[in-house]
Write a structure and sequence with these properties.
Helices cover about 25% and strands about 35% of the residues. It contains 10 helices and 18 strands.
Length: about 300
């Protein structure tokens, strides 16, 4: 049975001395909005983080990021799951049920719009990518004493906000269940912790907020990532302070705009789950408690 309760999700994470999401068509330069000065990460990158965590947990997924054709992947799944049809195999895949899939293989073809949709992540402040240079491990040829050079981009420090909606209407087609969507937020947090590669180490989850609405509710607040603010001593960071930011020491995340937007919808909220890093400075948590009472579940760490 598909899930019946709409959800909204906000995830805030930081990246230090790493590349949040390189553009392969632009020398792997961090994705960047030159007009606003914001670092960006695609929805595909966010979903890759989640899928990789589900793989670690032994979940069956369709897009496993291995270099293979769709034909090979479908045949793998049909064999592993002991099914005859590709659609039946894909119905067993958690990522297809939540994120959707476009499928065409032999005489089968169909397209599912995923009930879970992510916006591109954007930084909560202005930041500036930097080009760093170094030497390689080996020389260019046997007679050379000069090692190769390498160039790479990184961001000294950035805090990004991710927003997603879980739409119960689309779940009817894909068959995504309540148990499926419950696996999303933990995989986003834990998957970010497990981004331990040379280009991704330095990712750290800071805040995860999930609003679960009453059955039948068709609305949403929208753009939760635009409703959280970085502040210092009660004031927004000016441009210079944003560009100098290298940690969250002395910096507060202000959630008051979320509370204000949620107030007219409080009766429509079934539950809110809020997980935050231990020691994270938050403004607005008390106001959320007052608004939601025991509907608010808070976890530190």
């Amino acid at each position: 049975m598909s899930f019946n309760n709409r959800r909204e999700l906000l995830f805030v994470y930081s990246v230090k001395d790493a590349n949040p999401n390189g553009d392969p068509l632009n020398a792997n330069h961090p994705r960047y909005d030159s007009e606003t000065g914001q670092i960006m990460a695609s929805d595909v990158r966010i979903k890759r983080t989640i899928r990789d965590q589900w793989l670690r947990e032994g979940k069956t997924i369709f897009v496993d990021a291995e270099p293979k054709t769709m034909t090979a992947r479908v045949e793998e799944l049909k064999t592993a799951l002991s099914v005859k049809e590709g659609k039946e195999a894909i119905q067993h895949c958690l990522d297809a049920r939540l994120f959707g899939v476009t499928y065409a293989y032999k005489k089968e073809s169909f397209s599912w719009t995923g009930p879970v949709q992510f916006k591109w992540a954007r930084s909560l402040h202005q930041a500036r990518p930097e080009l760093v240079q170094g030497t390689g491990a080996f020389a260019t040829n046997e007679n050379s004493e000069q090692r190769t050079f390498r160039n790479e981009y990184l961001v000294p420090f950035v805090v990004l906000g991710v927003y997603a909606v879980a739409n119960q209407n689309a779940a009817i087609e894909t068959g995504a269940t309540e148990a499926d969507v419950d696996l999303l937020a933990p995989a986003l947090w834990d998957g970010t912790v497990n981004l331990i590669t040379r280009s991704k180490i330095g990712h750290q989850p800071r805040l995860l907020l999930e609003i679960i609405y009453q059955e039948g509710f068709q609305g949403l607040i929208g753009a939760l990532d635009e409703k959280v603010r970085l502040e210092k001593d009660g004031s927004p960071l000016d441009t210079e302070a944003q560009l100098r930011l290298r940690s969250l020491d002395g910096v507060t995340l202000n959630l008051n705009a979320i509370t204000e937007s949620l107030t007219p919808l409080a009766e429509q909220v079934k539950a809110m789950r809020l997980r935050h890093e231990k020691g994270l400075s938050l403004v607005g948590l008390a106001q959320l408690r007052t608004l939601l009472g025991d509907k608010l579940q808070v976890q530190a760490g």
